[in-house]
Amino acid sequence: MATRLGLSLPQAQQYDIGQDVPDVARTAEQIGYESLWVYERALFPEPATQGLYGIPGLPWPEMYRGVPDPLVTLTLAVTATERVRLGTSVLVAPLHGPFQLARTLGTLDAASGGRVVAGLGTGWSLDEYAAAGVAPFEERGQVLDEVLDVCQAVWGPDPVTYEGRLTKIAPAAVGPKPARPIPILLPANSKKARTRLVERADGWMPVAMGAEQLGAQWRQLQDFAAERGRTKPIESVARANAQYTPKAYDGADRAPFQGNVEQIVSDLKAHAEVGVDEILIELQGTARDAQELKDVAAEVFAAARAAGV
């Protein structure tokens, strides 16, 4: 069975969000992509308190400057599409109030006819937490746990009741309800994160940085799930951060998904053979405009399917 392929929606500065998001979403569905994805960057600090991913001295990429709200972006894609899943990769959950986030995701799922996928994470930017965090950065794991609790309550039957550290819901009707249970995907970068995923989530959302590494991580997670007694399958959606160039990249140290269409597809094939269910392809960051994004996305999809991905 072919690996499902997803595409990132245009969120970088070179795009007209109101015009390009529906256009790219509609075209991607027509091409054959099975899902569309957004990511979250709340702000672009100048100067940054910390480097990218918390690594000292590592600069933030320009594509992180002025990123539109992920859930507004997904909303623009809802009425432009009929079939594709609409996901977040990832939403930094502790930057959102748990109750309002659960309501927004539920409303979006109801509006889309049951197509939302909630990829949630805890983030790493101290500047984002200072501006928008609902609790200190050090408590991010606890906030994510409460978000999961509140989502389960709000998406469940009325009357909804919940009492937590950040959220208190007296018996109340809360709607609209999701059209179906919204799948929740989580990272698994530590034992605590793996435990949360295995016990509470539907799937795993890693960053694909090499087929061998991805395969090892996938086997480790599956073994851990078996040890914890999980029998329900774990859905897997790997994120491929591509750097497209029209010409082949001939460097001996070429990073995965860096180069022309042939090179990107070669890497897609290698990562698909690991056995993940879906690969989300990030192409929007290096495309010059929406037309180039659509053209490259079409070429990558056709070449991937021709290669057996």
From TrEMBL:
Family matches, as InterPro entries: Diverse_substr_monoxygenases, Lucif-like_OxRdtase_Rv2161c, Luciferase-like_dom, Luciferase-like_sf
Domain (Luciferase-like): residue spans on this chain: 19-239
Gene Ontology molecular function, alphabetical: oxidoreductase activity, acting on paired donors, with incorporation or reduction of molecular oxygen
Any Pfam family: Bac_luciferase
SUPFAM superfamilies linked to this entry: Bacterial luciferase-like (SSF51679)
Superkingdom of origin: Bacteria
Record-linked Gene3D superfamilies: Luciferase-like domain
Record PANTHER family: ALKANESULFONATE MONOOXYGENASE-RELATED, CONSERVED PROTEIN
Protein name, as recorded: LLM class F420-dependent oxidoreductase
